[in-house]
Amino acid sequence: MEFRQLQYFLTLCNELHFTRASEKLHISQPTLSQQIKVLENEVGALLFDRIGKKITLTEAGEILYEQCVNIFNTIENTKLQINELEMVQRGSIKIGALPGELTNLVSDSLLQYAKEYPLVQVSVTSSDDVYTLLKDNKIDYAFSYVDDVTLTDDEPFLKIPLYTEKFVFVSSKEHPLMTKHELSLHDVSETPLILFPSIHKCRNILNLTAKQEHLTLNPIFETASIDTIFKFVKETIGGTIVAESLYELNRHDNLCARPIIHNGLNRKTALIYRKDKYMNKVVKSYIPILIHYLEQLNISLPDSSFDKLMLFAERPYAKETVQPK
């Protein structure tokens, strides 16, 4: 069994099409077919069911695929560990985050990291499917909203809860609702709103909660642009409902925020990474910078999460006391 044959097999598993796989490997289709046949003879079992032009993995193929993924991940981790011996201050860090405020938050948090590690290549990918990016080894960390951080032994990911935040109504200080300290969803449903589109995660939570309260949110303007939302609010065209962290990122002297009290209007944000992925010092060095950045936003991590992150980062860090708002 040759390493090259396993590469061919893994590519065919991902494509499930001989022509596309051979093109991706830059070899002829007969060559690919021959090598797969040799591999099947070597393991003593069919790896693919061939039905016309369609192919699917057999049970034996699924077993080999799982082991191939482990083999290639181990090789990649070994390369990273060897490279780390020579390039402590170089390398790359790749982070995935849900579109919208999480992408903004992560991007802003990396400013200090870029200053401390100017030779490191930094990449932030905005995606609705960060788990696939993790699975395909395209990113080191993912930031996402999670309903549950309880893990089973067979899960390939680790989820560390960072914070649970509520939603706030944001408008000019002169808005009549700013006379109240807390608001209900009913209070803001009648006011002109500038909101994210319905495909946005934040808006999904809002719509679901409003439906539970037999309310309908009819924004006067919808946009995926965070800058535009806050620009409209500053111009007193309307108010908006956003996560508290997004308001903290876009604070302005003319704006004010009030919490919307409802059990459904909160969400858990978590840092997620693969259990089996080797993390070098360049990647781990982001963790203390992230914690400090969240503290600047008055976001305090749960003690258990702080301890897990510090153990993972292998660096001492004195936790600051976050002042109540």
CATH fold topology of the largest domain = D-Maltodextrin-Binding Protein, domain 2
Structural class: alpha/beta
Strand count:
11
Order of helices and strands: HHHEEHEHEHEEHEHEHEHEEHHH
* CATH C-level name of the largest domain: Alpha Beta
Any idea what the radius of gyration is? 24 Å
Strand content: 15-25%
Shape: elongated
End-to-end distance, in Å? 63 Å
The biggest sheet amounts to: 7 strands, mixed
CATH superfamily of the largest domain: Periplasmic binding protein-like II
Helix coverage percent: 40-55%
Pfam family, one: HTH_1
Keywords: DNA-binding, Transcription, Transcription regulation
GO molecular function, one term: DNA binding
Organism: Lysinibacillus composti
Structural commentary:
The protein is of the alpha/beta class. It has three domains: 3-84, Arc Repressor Mutant, subunit A, CATH 1.10.10; 89-163 and 267-313, 3-Layer(aba) Sandwich (D-Maltodextrin-Binding Protein, domain 2); 165-266, Periplasmic binding protein-like II (D-Maltodextrin-Binding Protein, domain 2), CATH 3.40.190. The chain has helices at 3-15, 18-25, 29-43, 59-86, 101-116, 130-135, 185-189, 201-212, 226-234, 244-249, 281-284, 286-296, 303-313; strands at 48-51, 54-57, 92-97, 121-126, 141-146, 157-172, 194-195, 221-222, 240-243, 255-259, 266-274. Strands 3, 4, 5, 6, 9, 10 and 11 form a seven-stranded mixed beta sheet that branches. A two-stranded antiparallel ribbon has the order 1-2. The longest helix has 28 residues, at 59-86. It is elongated. The chain starts with a helix and ends in a 12-residue tail after the last helix.
